[in-house]
Batch of 4 targets.
Target 1
Amino acid sequence: MTGGGPAGGTETGALEIDVDDRDDSLYRLLSSAVVPRPIAWVSTRCEDGVDNLAPYSFFTVASVAPPVLLFAPVDGTDGLKDTPRNARDTGEFVVNLVTEDLAEAMNETSATLPAGESEFDRAGLERADSVAVDPPRVAGSKVAFECSLHDLIDVGGSTLVLGEVRHVHVDESVTTDGKIDVDEIEAVGRLAGSQYVRTDDRFSLERPP
Ligand SMILES: Cc1cc2nc3c(=O)[nH]c(=O)nc-3n(C[C@H](O)[C@H](O)[C@H](O)COP(=O)(O)O)c2cc1C
């Protein structure tokens, strides 16, 4: 039985949410339930040459062949955020992996800065030259995907940014026998709000044939 409250609460505490009856954002619900999310730490260079860096956790692999990554900026109060705007204007970006040692710096780069100021400098992060694209990668990031823009797709108040991977940088500290070693990648994921999760508490399941 539905309780009729604005959140669709029931007497048991369960929620039955009829989205058509809601005029507020489902952001909190979506970002609390779709967890943990990997974090794309995206570097771009604006047309004026300023290096931009920002985290996006609405992020996944969109395709393997061709290799395409996807992240989804939600429009800010002024419309398109800097990252999707730079990706649209220059056709290039780099997705940097966030590991625990970089988590605080990553968080710092989510601040809104005045035009002309780079989040790299604000967070004291060293740049490294990319190989296939113009924007720099985060030097301390263990894996970086250099991408050229594949497509931009409007979905209501969000923009899906799809990037085709052109070059991958993998730090030697996360490789074993010439392959990326998942046991060495201390990636962090995002939960809701200011909560994050580590990826070093693991278990395995064999897939059925
Ligand atoms: C861990 C983390 C994940 C985030 N994920 C997203 C996201 O998926 N979509 C989004 O629009 N904003 C996200 N944000 C907020 C943006 O990082 C923030 O709006 C930032 O200022 C955007 O910078 P830009 O305008 O330079 O692109 C996230 C922030 C943090 C700290």
Target 2
Amino acid sequence: MALVGRPNVGKSTLLNAALGHPLAIVSPMPQTTRDAILGVVHHGPAEIALLDTPGLHRPRTELGRVMNQAAREAARSADVIVFVTEAPDPARLRGGAAKDGEHSRPLAPHPGDLTLLADLGSEAPVVLVLNKVDRTRDKSQLLPLLEALSKVREFAAVVPISARRDDGVQRVLDEVAKLCPEGEWGFAPDELTDRPTRFFAGEYVREQILRATKEEVPHASAVQIERYVEPTGGGALHIDATIHVERPGQKKILIGAGAEQLKRIGTEARLRIEELVGRQVNLKLWVRVTPAWRESLERLEELGYNKGEAS
Ligand SMILES: Nc1nc2c(ncn2[C@@H]2O[C@H](COP(=O)(O)OP(=O)(O)O)[C@@H](O)[C@H]2O)c(=O)[nH]1
Ligand SMILES: [Mg+2]
């Protein structure tokens, strides 16, 4: 099944809650997820393969177009689509209710949601997930939004949840399990994903960059794993990675005074990778300026972002 929705509605948080493991990286910044990531959940007798996708958005760069394409392809090939949207920000809700003491205005769906829903096609059943309901104290305020969305298309189920609090996530899996065809996959019970740990090593470095820096630096950064050596018979895993940025100023920010920033990023990322692989990790980071890598199909390919044909 594929998780689709606008950027930042909480798709990756939902994947992690379903897995019970913080596999996918999550941040308050839109476009955190750049590749589709598969997570495997054993739910009762069912095995559910959840595909987390980059948020569909209006792309401004070649990277953005590649990300949209990854999400669309995931949606096309899925047996079940989980369409994720979010409860409105409380500030917006208050604004709506305050109008001359009227009843609170029925909340309209986000225009981006309407476009996405129209785009989804009608082959696969769609489960509507309204995430972040923890932000709304009076849940009845959400009903007009759910009603309006239900008029846009038919949903196999509608599930309000809080992915962050792991509230309602099991219900999403129940609904998906009912809709899933039987016996298609075949992962080992302890397998979390089909991606190699090498991929997540790069993701966890990027996660620390997202945490440590602001504005254009996270969007302009890409992590390339240059060396990944797993000594047989134990011992530390050796990883060399290059962080590509687009401008010298971004490189300076990432490294920081006395290289303190880069050291912190390396230490935090190493701890996350060690948790995933269950062994010691030796992580070395370099920062390189690769101008306009987000606009170059060739660079994107080298960085692993361009698997299919770009359109
Ligand atoms: N209040 C609240 N915030 C959430 C919830 N789920 C996710 N978030 C936050 O929303 C932001 C985007 O989440 P993420 O999973 O990266 O969204 P994605 O872009 O759809 O994958 C992060 O700051 C999350 O912590 C939720 O249930 N409640
Ligand atoms: Mg995400």
Target 3
Amino acid sequence: MKKRCILPILCLPFLCAACKSVPTPSSSEPPQAIEEELQEPTTLPPPEHKPVPLPEPPPEPPVDPDIWDVSDVDISAIDQSRKLISFTFDDAPARTIENILAVFAAFNENNPDCPASATLFCNGCLFDSSSVSTLHAACALGFELGNHTYAHFDLTTLSEPTLQAEIDKTDALLEQADGKPRHLFRAPYGRLNDLVRATVQTPILDWTIDTLDWTGVTADEIYQTVWSQKFSGAIVLMHDGHDQTVDALKRLLPDLKAEGYQVVSISKMAKAHGVTMRRGNVYIRARKKEIGN
Ligand SMILES: [Zn+2]
């Protein structure tokens, strides 16, 4: 009982001290300080006036070296309402390269709303003194350069060092024309094995439509092969060095445009269709994602 009686007495000085700290009009605190404290809930600036720290920008996603970089591929001239189809020419630069480029240049001159381009898969052993300037002109026309090895061997018969040299020597030549160290890859004869897929540092391109233009078929047969098998996302295999291919092109470019198509390089088609290509993967087409790859 004594303890109970003592507690209020012991606490009294502290209670009194606490009471003294409560501001009153007669205290030494400035009056405006009291007012601000009491009105704090209603005198706060509106929330929108509060300085809100900007959120930290999301970190840049790491660049995946396995993904084919299309950030510098210009698709501004692609009409997104059109179906897209890729023309590819293997075994370039050969006898008809200038004629192929001339057909595309003439078409683009007359069809600025639907410029056509293609991918040239080149062999280093075919280069002569004018090849770099010719391929440089092809790039200016919107073409893309691809690697078809140096000497067109069946790659499945080669050792890793020889295979690597076949790729690297041609990349170095192509870089003189387009300034790029690496290029889309197409294997001679389409022959691949695990070693080839592991050695190639870029996507590997096969094809959808084989025109068989190197076998001596006519221009009309080349035309009909493309016409009967075409779809948006298809990749057409043709070759440099055959006059009937050039003749077929003269009909295919305008007729495909009239059918709602635009002829473009593989990287342009992949970018326009939102298709991500990866190192070592083999692609036979590049359709829109909602259709499937
Ligand atoms: Zn070839």
Target 4
Amino acid sequence: MNTPRLALCPVDPQWIPPDDKRLDQFLQSIELSGKALPQPLQFLPGQKFLDLIAFMGCSPDIKLEPGDDERPFCLIHVQDQAKSVECHFGEHTHSPRCPKCRSPVKDWLDSIHRWMEGDATSLWECSTCHWQAAPWDFNWRQSAGFGRCFIEISNIFPKEALPQAHLLDTLQAYYGIKWLYFYQH
Ligand SMILES: [Zn+2]
């Protein structure tokens, strides 16, 4: 089973941060992330992690650092330089629905693999109403996301936690682009 994740990405899938505004450095400066791990672009949660990510429920059983037991902990993985748009999804991603007629795309997994192996720019056509749109314009119900740039926080199940508005606002103010979030599970 893949690790469940909460992920954030910019609303424009083609967007990547400018060279002088690196995402990993910004996330450390606002203390969403803290100490860098030996693996590239992976970080422990920072001092403000719990101010920027809201956990649901009264006593979330979250672990912020590796410990003696095998229990998984939250770590932050930054990706900001993919060459082309990637679709990040999980085993339980919902069938995307047509933005026009809401019909589900039944063979979406094959379609998305073909799309990513191609040039990742072609439009999808709804088999019911023949509406054409970019795959990210279909309704994935926050169970997949598209981009060249992602912030992934591991070991968070869908709806278990969500980014505070303050975090989304801070990212938008610094980068001048709106950010979305979704769950990979
Ligand atoms: Zn349709």
